[in-house]
Automatic annotation (TrEMBL):
Source species, domain of life: Eukaryota
The name this protein goes by in its record: SGNH hydrolase-type esterase domain-containing protein
InterPro entries: Iah1-like, SGNH_hydro, SGNH_hydro_sf
Organism of origin: Escallonia rubra
Limits of the SGNH hydrolase-type esterase domain: 32-218
Amino acid sequence: VITFKLQPSFSAESESEREREMVGPQRPQIVLFGSSIVQLSFSNGGWGAILSDVYARKADIVLRGYYGWNSRRALQVLDQVFPKDASVQPDLVIVYFGGNDSMGPHSSGLGPHVPLQEYVENMRKIANHLKSLSNTTRIIFLSCPPVDEVRLRENTSTIFSELVRTNELCQRYSEACIELCQEINVKVVDLWTAFQKRDDWLTACFTDGVHLSAEGSKIVVQEILKALKEAEWTPSLHWKSMPTEFSEDSPYDLVYSDGKTTLNPSDWTFHREIQWD
């Protein structure tokens, strides 16, 4: 006979206690929220993984990415992903939706397509919700990057029906996102333009024509860090302006060549392929 011991349910008080017992110290929190460009951002040398390295000992990168989602689905879960009554609110939310919204409509009425004006209003609602979380929660939107239409047509599985992605649609949704951000005073990264500054973007920036390769992710990181450096936010969320956790000198650090002093490695970055600004 197998018996199971039921665990007691947690009250609001015990939930709060468990939050206090989570791994610490409490660091600034950067949440990545979006569709597959976000979910896969720790794959293939992705931009989420790079940011986690850049912000090591400075901030926690929290992944909230959902393969195939559009802005409609984002709105359905917005209160669950970002509850207004949470005891700790994110310091920065980086949001990407639009690639799936911009796909051509399916004849059945099903699928991820969202009409352009509805997409804009959905993104406005997302921004307004995030702004309401706290006075110090900052926001960056990412606009739609271009796609490799030829590779998409060649690689699209036959399990999909009427799958339409074009650069004309991506550009329209990218421009609409940028225009909205300018209107509501939200920082935006123009990935549509940033990718095409590279001559070989079609071959270098994607794994399958739409999802990002390591080279594509480097562009995303460069543009995000540029936006953070330019932002006049107090406190600054640019990695070089943020304190390093446990950065004090220690006699337990590696010993310098003089045999008498130690070297503090807290801010060493020589391991990085790119010395990010």
